[in-house]
Backbone:
């Protein structure tokens, strides 16, 4: 169905990971659900979902937070896509991105996974990498810290000051992508900030 979008915010389950960099995708889902005053409900595809609308009369949105760990995101995403009859080109994946500076949002469809195991697993499960992505920059660690540890750390105090704005901007990017398409969203979010 061209008028229904599955929007998946990647992250890890449980309070230990809730406020970590790796969970920014789930933070964006909370923002989108909060804007609509909706609560997530359990789904048989090992996920929690909100079924809502972009706005009255516009596209239907299925917001999803997975109960699985990041590296095995593919099964639940493929299960949700099958359940709702949504093709890969209408599955928007929102995830953290090491290779983009903090406080930056980039959008793309297809391409490689850039070492992101959640994106890799989703591409494998869907049988294609041609799904749209909202990539939320978390930057790379300074010094010798292992990136695998960095993504599982909470945001720094400095980052937390602007984190609500970043999450809100990423939610705006999702809405614009579903409403007007990739090019329009890229033109807005890839432009240098004034």
Residues:
């Amino acid at each position: 169905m061209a008028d229904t979008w599955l929007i998946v915010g990647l992250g890890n389950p449980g309070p230990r990971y809730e406020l970590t960099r790796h969970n920014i995708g789930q933070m964006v889902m909370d923002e989108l659900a909060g804007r609509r005053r909706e609560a997530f409900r359990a789904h048989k595809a090992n996920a929690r979902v909100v079924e809502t609308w972009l706005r009255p009369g516009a596209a239907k949105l299925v917001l999803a937070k997975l109960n699985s760990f990041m590296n095995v995101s593919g099964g639940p995403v493929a299960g949700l896509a099958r359940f709702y009859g949504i093709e890969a080109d209408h599955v928007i994946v929102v995830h953290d991105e090491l290779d983009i500076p903090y406080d930056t949002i980039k959008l793309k469809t297809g391409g490689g996974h850039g070492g992101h195991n959640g994106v890799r697993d989703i591409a494998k499960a869907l049988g294609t990498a041609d799904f749209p992505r909202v990539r939320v920059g978390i930057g790379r660690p300074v010094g010798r810290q292992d990136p695998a540890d960095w993504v599982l750390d909470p945001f720094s105090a400095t980052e937390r000051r602007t984190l609500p704005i970043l999450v809100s901007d990423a939610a705006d990017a999702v809405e614009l992508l579903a409403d007007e398409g990739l090019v329009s969203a890229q033109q807005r979010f890839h432009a240098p900030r004034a």
